[in-house]
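WARN no homologs supplied; continuing
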Amino acid sequence: MIDITDMMRQTVNYSKSGRIKINPADSYSIKDNVWDNWAPFVLSGLHKYGGAVSDLGIVGTGAGADAIGVKLGFIAYNLFVTNLDENDLSLALMNLSPYMGGRSLQGYTGNLLEPFIERGIKLDIIVENLANIPISDEEFELETSGSFFNEQHLASFNNELAEAYLLLPHYACLVQAKQVLKSRGRLVMAIGGRVPLDIVKNMVEGEGYSYKEIFTGIKVQTEPEEVLQSYAKAEQKLEFDFYALPPHMVDAINLGIVQQFNMDGERLKKGLTRHRINAKEALRLYEQGKTIGHTVHVVSAWNKS
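OK structure emitted
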């Protein structure tokens, strides 16, 4: 089992003495260092909302660490989780069960927001932190990394810019969320800042949403070899933003110090300018033993009307 107590203490102010342990999922491995995972960024963003909502859904929950954090630090009376893999979904539900405290918990298998659409479920908040890199159906069957998605699952979505910048899963959620969100509902997305932030903002607003950045930070690139190779391959007529991180900055990230500042995303990226490299250079430096990172931006989108 994996102990995620420190993750909960650093993100949702969990203060009880009991340890929180979960069984790991095959589709996404929880890293030992808290801030090497995506869940802390998502939970830190959600924690800013505070208060309570009736219905909250998490798309692609993995082992359920993000959902446990939602339960501990954010009141949701009805919690809905999804996963593509039925075994991983069963595992997540098992991990979640001890922490629900009598609240309603429902889990569904399916792609993106389709499980909610098919059942007519309406949500106050949708949380998504989806893989960015497309691979074929055959490759997906063999892949164990959480960084890749089956390109066939998004074949019906068309946005050239989102596709070029490896943002298509986020775009697809923006499209589908219109059928799931309540009138005042919000879609919360965790997006790697490897792309210009105006691309993300324009993508959100182009689908008729208002846009707000609610949490930022820096994350060491995990699974660097395969991820960096994929971004370098996609780097044809555009460039991605990676950063060659000096040791003192890596230490600050690992301790959660950088995340405490939660500065404006553009300001954060500007402050990292002298460390900026593209994906091809990031791959070359990684192969020389350098630590590579990228910014993380948790953004909220809600219907303008």
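Residues 140-145 have pLDDT under 50 and may be disordered.
OK
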